[in-house]
Amino acid sequence: MPDTTNGKRTIDSVGRRAFLGALGTGAALSVGVGSAAAQDVTLIDSCTTITEPGQYRLTQDLESSFVSDTGPEGEDAVDESEVCIEILANDVHFDGDGYTLTNPAERELGQLGVTTSFDATQSNVTIENVTSVGWEAGFAYVNTSGGALRNVTARGNEIGIAAFQSDDATIADATVEGGIGGISLQEVDNSTVAGLTAEENSLFGLAFFIARNNTVCNATISETGADPEPDPVGDVEAPPGEEGEPEFEPTGISIGDASNNRIVDSTVTSSSDWDVFVSDGASDNPITNLDLDSATVSLDGQDFAVRAVDDPPEDPEELANVGGYVAAADRGENPSLDLDMHYQDDDVADVGVDEETLRLWAFVEEWTEMDDSSVNAEANIVSALLEEFDPDGRVFGSFGET
Q1: Mean pLDDT per 10-residue segment, the chain (402 residues)
Q2: What is the pLDDT of residue 20?
Q3: DSSP state, 14?
């Protein structure tokens, strides 16, 4: 399986193994439902499998409780194929009504908070208003077309939301926090993610792999690579490398082997390593109006990584910076990056720059103006095509004459 994140660690290894390795069994779960015929809503008060179309509503917080007798020294052990809410029918609307699904034990392979079917294609499944805490995946949206996840929260899971082999889906106003991965779109097409909040995930905030024609808008991704705070199911830690070091570079947005996806009007801040990482031949994935800690940028290219610059080199003499700084690195065999750096009219006025002289400059021991750089004063953008990088990140800035 190709790399799904940044050339070093795969989504496959932290998520899909749970899907294909355990969930195909479709574990039998106890059913606790009661009919509310007047409202045509089925009420749910325990972990269950939904096998009929209809509307379902959770009536209380749930904790996983399915155990096997294989624990150490005669103690009970959590069943590794456990799922709390499993949806196996078409045309299902599951409303969590603000309640929480919690796995209080140490996470095991295949433990999922809410999942659709791994064995059959489904359509029109909506999951909303529910929080999922402490699972292998908080929400697994699999083999499903034309459905939605709305107003869901995933906290302290290995992956918060894992969308897999699905299309025409909407994920709106989701929060994914304190896990290893935030939200992954793997083999997902023609879908929309709007209003995502991803905070303090160890590996990635948002990741695409073998994904086509998807749109992400108004996403806010922060503190990727931070050590998540302890949660009710214990600390969440990224798997170590051979010598105890992580095998990945934490990344706010990771795009691998994906094409024709769009990310617009979003924010990535306080990433420990990279804000954006594009690899594995991914191309034609434009990112427009992305706010970083040190600049607002638009990006399109392949085999590159970009991050904010905390401590830029001293500006060139007789020039002033307008629009900030970014660092870019190569991460593959054919790196290239169309870089636009945005600025405001007030920025130009504040430093007294001649706007028509604005250009992108690169720092390699000293600042050098890029030959093909240009300014679009009407759009307030300074642009250049980058084809030379440093492995650790070459710094670029936009400067003009005062």
Answers
A1: 32 38 30 46 95 97 65 44 90 98 78 93 97 96 96 96 97 97 96 98 96 98 76 44 55 96 98 95 96 98 95 93 95 92 94 94 94 95 91 93 91
A2: 35
A3: I
DSSP 143-195: SEES-EEEEEEEES-SEEEEEES-BS-EEES-EEESSSEEEEEES-BS-EEES
pLDDT value, residue 391? 84
Measured between alpha carbons, how far apart are the two ends of the chain, in Å? 53
C-alpha separations of 192 from 87, 121, 174, 216, 233 in Å: 21, 19, 12, 6, 31
DSSP H or E stretch at residue 17: helix 17-22
| Whole-number Å distance between alpha carbons of 123 and 278 | 31
CA gap 145, 256 in Å, rounded: 22
In this prediction, residue 240 carries a pLDDT of 45
Q: Which residues contact 380 (CB under 8 A, 6 or more apart)?
A: 342, 343, 344, 345
H/E stretch holding 22 reads helix 17-22
Residue 12 has a pLDDT of 39
pTM across the whole model: 0.84
Are 168 and 141 spatial neighbours (Cβ–Cβ below 8 Å)?
Answer: no
Q: Are 391 and 383 in contact (CB under 8 A)?
A: no
Residues in Cβ contact with 386 at an 8 Å cutoff, skipping those fewer than 6 apart: 301, 304, 328, 336, 337, 338, 339, 362, 370, 396
Q: Six-digit token pair at 294?
A: 């040190």
Q: Can you read off the two tokens belonging to residue 28? A: 């039998």
d(CA 294, CA 306): 11
**337/283 Cα distance (integer angstroms):** 10
Rounded Cα distance between 194 and 182, Å, is 14
Q: Are 141 and 160 in contact (CB under 8 A)?
A: no
Report strand pairing: 192-194 vs 125-133.
unpaired
Residue 65 in tokens: 């409780």
